[in-house]
Amino acid sequence: LGFFLIRPLLVNTVTYPVPDLTGQTVAQATVLLKDAKFELGTVTEAPSDAVPQTIISQTPAIGAEAKAGSAINVTISTGPAKAIVPAIKNLSLDEASRLLSEAGLKLGTKTLLESDAPVNQVLDSDPAEGTSVDSGSVVNVTISSGAVVVPDVRGATQADAIAELESSGFRVLVTKSKTNEVPPGTVVKQSPIAGVKAKNGSTVTITVAEAAPAPSPSPTPTTPTPTTPPTTAPPTTP
To answer: For 176-234, how does the pLDDT look when each residue is reduced to its tens digit (9 = 90+)?
Structure first.
């Protein structure tokens, strides 16, 4: 009689290793658990890069010892987490980058486009705002190159012209031209001409006056010295 009373207690204390259910569907896991003398417990969902509807974690853990008939709880993947592309059009590149980061997205390639908009202002995004994408996705943007009106620096000194052009966002190339019509160091020509729009960061060439060498003095004309023709003695009479 004592043997029959103790035997059920021994059966209930026998443990088995929990099988690895990672990557299995719920249906597949149910079969595996039954073969291993367990039951499927609660099923929860969580975003993951794993294949949707496959198991990504379990409790008890893989290989843990559990009593026969124990429930094994699992979590299945719903696929990557989603994010919505924020509205970044007409924002500065820095502000757009910040909003994308806050949304769980990354700033991708930056394509320059000539535009009257301020330099580095976002003109468009790909994917477009409001699009649902996987979290961590890249969003490419088109930004303004910032077309700038070229200032008129003719007549200015070289130093003043360079300062004004650089403050407007241009690079400057200086060439020289010999002339005495204006003071040396004065800008006599520029390209592109004043008033046109040019890409921010493009080069404006200025031509600066350089003193021309003084002309050589004309030689003083000389008057030839008159010469006296030689005299001829009259012939002698024999």
So the answer is: 999 999 999 999 999 999 999 888 888 999 999 999 887 777 676 666 666 666 666 56
C-alpha 191, offset from chain centre: 30
Q: How many domains does the chain have?
A: 3
Three-state SS annotation for the chain? CHHHHHHHHHHHCCEEECCCCCCCCHHHHHHHHHHCCCEEEEEEEECCCCCCCCEEEEECCCCCEEECCCEEEEEEECCCCEEECCCCCCCEHHHHHHHHHHCCCEEEEEEEECCCCCCCEEEEEECCCCCEEECCCEEEEEEECCEEECCCCCCCEHHHHHHHHHHCCCEEEEEEEECCCCCCCEEEEEECCCCCEEECCCEEEEEEEECCCCCCCCCCCCCCCCCCCCCCCCCCCC
**What is the predicted pLDDT for the residue at 89?**
96
- Asked if residue 216 is part of any domain, the answer here is no
Residue 112 domain flag: yes
In a domain, 35, yes or no: yes
Regarding whether 68 and 20 lie in a shared domain, the answer is: yes
Q: What is the span of the domain harbouring residue 140?
A: 82-145
Query: What pLDDT does 154 receive?
Result: 97
CB atoms within 10 A of CB 141: 22
Q: What is the pLDDT of residue 236?
A: 63
Residue 159 lies in a domain: yes
Choose one of 103, 127, 145: the last residue of a domain.
145
Domain CATH code at residue 140: 3.30.10.20
- Full-model pTM: 0.52
